[in-house]
Design brief:
Blueprint lengths: L11 E2 L2 E2 H7 L1 H7 L20 E3 L7 H10 L6 E3 L13 H13 L6 E3 L11 H18 L6 E4 L9 H15 L7 E5 L12 H10 L6 E6 H7 L7 H11 L5 E6 L1 E2 L10 E2 L7 H10 L8 E3 L5 H14 L4
Parallel strand pairs: 3-12, 4-5, 5-6, 6-7, 7-8, 8-9, 9-12
Antiparallel strand pairs: 1-2, 10-11
Helix pairs in contact: 3-4, 5-6, 6-7
The structure holds zinc ion (ZN) (2 copies).
Length: 327
């Protein structure tokens, strides 16, 4: 296993060393209960009365290119894979590219960006080598995300592949305990899953049980995927309030940090996980108007993972901004 070095010591961003970012960032956030952050100085603001939204983008052109693409489609954030989704070697980070991106992000009031782990990793695989690979990739990803401090790293909790839910939960929590560091500024997000196959995370209780076993809980949050929760049997079409109440009782809404905003190609409780464009699936446009305007959700960043080219994403972003009500 390769040892992980974090670029925390002495690494300069446009706003100063990452160490300062850490001191100014998430602790203050939780003390005040106010989402105050801004790029460069390590703060990222959400909740200016505008919708914070972006979509999944190709990372092949680097950070600055993603930032420019996001701007061109009306986004103030984006998601990207840290490496080939099948988990190959990541490209070297180019500090000039990162610095240029951070400047662009600051000038344009970007909110937190989301790095997404390769979806083929299985942190709770039965095969030790598969788990070791997940650990190695995720450790390396967390070192890399420190170049853009204070953002999100989202991953799928994994599939227990016949070992049982309880065993899967133990293994995923164990992996998190091995990779989380007190000095990291990245918040690691567990994604709500559709529950297909032997996936962990189709029930809120399963995410709660993972979080319960994590030592550095302040580094952990949850990403709520609208397609996945609906496919998993949480009826956000007819009872969004009830689902969020249940989320709050089981996990706690303070852990909810981001939303994957996707329609679903399949009916309620299908446990399928196939994303549709906004308004073209079983959730429908009224559900999305409710989701983005809900008092418990409207300040969060939203990330589209819909099957679209940039022009299609630009249209979805325009549509959702029209549906966003000013308060
Ligand atoms: Zn998702
Ligand atoms: Zn999905």
């Amino acid at each position: 296993m390769r040892s992980v070095s974090y670029p925390v010591e002495g690494y300069q961003t446009v706003g100063g060393p990452v160490r300062d970012v850490q001191n100014m960032g998430s602790c203050e956030l939780h003390k005040t209960g106010d989402d105050l952050h801004r790029y460069g100085n390590g703060f990222y603001e959400t909740g200016h009365g505008r919708l914070h939204i972006g979509c999944h983008l190709s990372s092949s052109g680097g950070y600055l290119q993603m930032g420019k693409t996001a701007l061109s489609i009306g986004a103030d954030t984006f998601q990207f894979f840290t490496r080939n989704p099948r988990g190959g070697k990541a490209k070297d980070i180019d500090p000039d590219d990162v610095a240029s991106f951070l400047r662009l992000a600051q000038e344009n009031d970007f909110v937190q960006i989301m790095a997404h782990a390769p979806y083929t990793l299985n942190p709770c695989a039965a095969d030790r080598r598969v788990r070791a690979f997940a650990l190695e990739v995720m450790s390396d990803d967390l070192a890399r995300t420190e170049y853009t401090p204070g953002n999100f790293y989202n991953f799928h909790p994994g599939s227990h592949v016949g070992q049982g839910v309880a065993a899967g939960i133990e293994l995923t929590a164990d992996l998190l305990n091995r990779i989380l560091r007190p000095e990291q500024t990245t918040t690691v997000l567990l994604e709500t899953m559709s529950g297909k196959g032997s996936e962990i995370g189709g029930r809120f209780e399963e995410l709660r049980q993972i979080i319960d076993r994590v030592e550095l809980k302040e580094k952990i949050g949850v990403c709520f995927d609208t397609c996945h929760v609906y496919d998993a049997g949480y009826d956000i079409v007819n009872d969004l309030d009830g689902v969020l109440k249940e989320f709050d009782e089981v996990i706690g809404l303070e852990r909810l940090r981001a939303v994957h905003i996707n329609d679903s190609k399949n009916p309620f409780h299908s446990r399928k996980d196939r994303h549709a464009r906004i308004g073209e699936g079983s959730l429908g446009i009224d559900t999305f108007a409710n989701v983005i305007n809900h008092p418990k959700l409207r300040r969060l960043p939203f990330y589209l993972e819909t099957p679209n080219e940039p022009e299609g994403h630009a249209q979805e972003i325009r549509l959702l901004k029209e549906l966003y009500r000013q308060r």
